[in-house]
Amino acid sequence: MADLHTDSSPGLNLNPTICRRLLVAYLIERLPRPNNPALEDITGWPRRTIQDVIAKGLPGHGTLVEFVQQGVRNNDGYYELSDWGSIDGEWVRAHLADIARVLELAPDQIPAPDSGV
Predict the structure, then answer these.
(1) Torsion sign across C-alpha atoms 78, 34, 50, 98
(2) For the chain: N or C, fewer Cβ within 10 A?
(3) φ/ψ bin of 114: left (φ > 0), alpha (ψ from -120 to 50), beta (otherwise)
(4) In the predicted structure, residue 91 carries a pLDDT above the cut 60
């Protein structure tokens, strides 16, 4: 099996706004207990950008992300992806290098897919 994490399609022309949505959905699926600080660390994006993608961008694709509350503070908890909606998660995992390139992130910043995901 090819290493999907480093496979890049140079001719693929992707929209950065869509790529942000794809990457955030992927990271929420992939990271253990993904919260805003974890997503900010990987992407380097401001908190507000990540919150906007989750609250406004992903629902437009039918993607369901819920916040699992833990603790007493409002921001204690993590996000959980319950449905990719119209986004093909397999395609996202297969094109992580392309998504990283469009978003000007080093592919090694993004956790590789688990073989069982």
Answers:
(1) negative
(2) N
(3) beta
(4) yes
Both structure tokens of 29: 């699926």
**How does DSSP classify residue 67?**
E
Tracing tokens 């999907």 back to the chain, one arrives at 4
**DSSP character at residue 60:** G
Residue 80, SS3 per DSSP = strand
| 3-state secondary structure (DSSP) of residue 64 | strand
- What's the pTM? 0.86
Q: Rounded CA gap, 59 and 105, in Å?
A: 24
Q: How far apart are CA 69 and CA 66, in angstroms?
A: 9
CA distances 57 to 28, 60, 80, 107, Å, are 14, 6, 16, 23
Q: At which residue do the structure tokens 């369901």 appear?
A: 64
